[in-house]
């Protein structure tokens, strides 16, 4: 929801056009001494367990005050994984914490993305649609690990940049995005920064 025209900012990060993208793997791992091991795994929407984890995390996001404070409908929860799987160029990562000795670990965070296209660059881009970390895992680098996994996937796809939207008063998220290299989207400072608008059709 957009309470006002200035309530949501469009952020972007980009790479040099023509830069050779590094290779990436479906799972990326990070570990900080004294903190949980974080493993980010590309979601297989057709896998029931992974789909259940995705829905559980997104529902927690929806119930968070910054996600609107309302749970997902039963219809959304039932159909979301299969519907995402039918969307061309959709992909998601789930961050698992505490994975050791082959154990799955605990689902801690989620990021949902969609590949789009930049007409100015004539190259694909990735829009980060949802980013969420459960309360008990915040402050442990989960969001940075998820954003890094998406960046690697986007570079593998030859994308020119990442974009995302963030509520202007969500300062914790904004700082996390800035740390990851995102900044306000603008073409000329004299004309201001881009805003994210919506018009509901239902």
Automatic annotation (TrEMBL):
Pfam families in UniProt: Acetyltransf_1
Keywords noted in UniProt: Acyltransferase, Signal, Transferase
Record's keyword annotation contains Signal: yes
UniProt xrefs under PROSITE patterns: GNAT (PS51186)
Signal peptide: 1-18
Domain named N-acetyltransferase: residues: 105-202
InterPro entries per record: Acyl_CoA_acyltransferase (IPR016181), Diverse_Substrate_AcTransf (IPR051016), GNAT_dom (IPR000182)
Protein name (database record): Acetyltransferase
Keyword Lipid metabolism: no
Domain of life of the native organism: Eukaryota
Annotated PANTHER family: DIAMINE N-ACETYLTRANSFERASE (PTHR10545), GH14572P-RELATED (PTHR10545:SF29)
Entry GO MF terms: N-acetyltransferase activity
């Amino acid at each position: 929801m957009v309470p006002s025209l200035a309530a949501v900012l469009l952020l972007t990060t980009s790479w040099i056009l023509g830069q050779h993208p590094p290779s990436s793997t479906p799972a990326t791992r990070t570990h900080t001494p004294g903190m949980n091991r974080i493993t980010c795994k590309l979601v297989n929407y057709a896998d029931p367990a992974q789909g259940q984890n995705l829905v559980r995390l997104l529902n927690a996001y929806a119930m968070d005050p910054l996600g609107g404070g309302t749970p997902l409908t039963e219809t959304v929860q039932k159909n979301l994984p299969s519907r995402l799987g039918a969307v061309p160029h959709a992909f998601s990562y789930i961050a698992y914490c505490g994975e050791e000795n082959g154990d799955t670990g605990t689902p801690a965070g989620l990021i949902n993305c969609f590949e789009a296209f930049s007409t100015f660059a004539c190259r694909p881009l990735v829009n980060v649609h949802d980013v969420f970390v459960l309360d008990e895992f915040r402050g442990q680098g989960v969001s940075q690990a998820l954003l890094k996994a998406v960046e690697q996937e986007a570079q593998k796809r030859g994308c020119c940049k990442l974009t995302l939207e963030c509520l202007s008063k969500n300062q914790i998220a904004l700082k996390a995005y800035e740390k990851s290299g995102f900044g306000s989207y603008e073409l000329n400072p004299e004309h201001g920064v881009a805003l994210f608008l919506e018009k509901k059709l239902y």
